[in-house]
Design goal:
two-stranded antiparallel ribbon, 3 helices, 4 strands, about 40% helix, about 20% strand, alpha+beta
Amino acid sequence: MTITSQETDLEIQQFPILLGQGGEITIPQLLQDSLNVNQGDMLVLLQIGNLIVLAPKQPQVPQLIDRIATIMESQNVGLTDLLAGLEAEREAIWQEKQS
């Protein structure tokens, strides 16, 4: 069943899912294809009151890399500068732990 909200232009689809032995669920192939998820991919299950939302878990590393790159560009900081600053921070933390 598909419901389309004209106010938000958001399509809501329902998929019947059977809870298997041990709590396993099978995500319909059409939905797997649509979300580009495959066997072994990490998903996150959110419980909001009596509502359950299952979504692909997006890796954080690519997003963090993009944020770091953006900050480096905006501050005109090169990789050499970043690594030098990292070494200085490590030394400061080591000195702090020694005292």
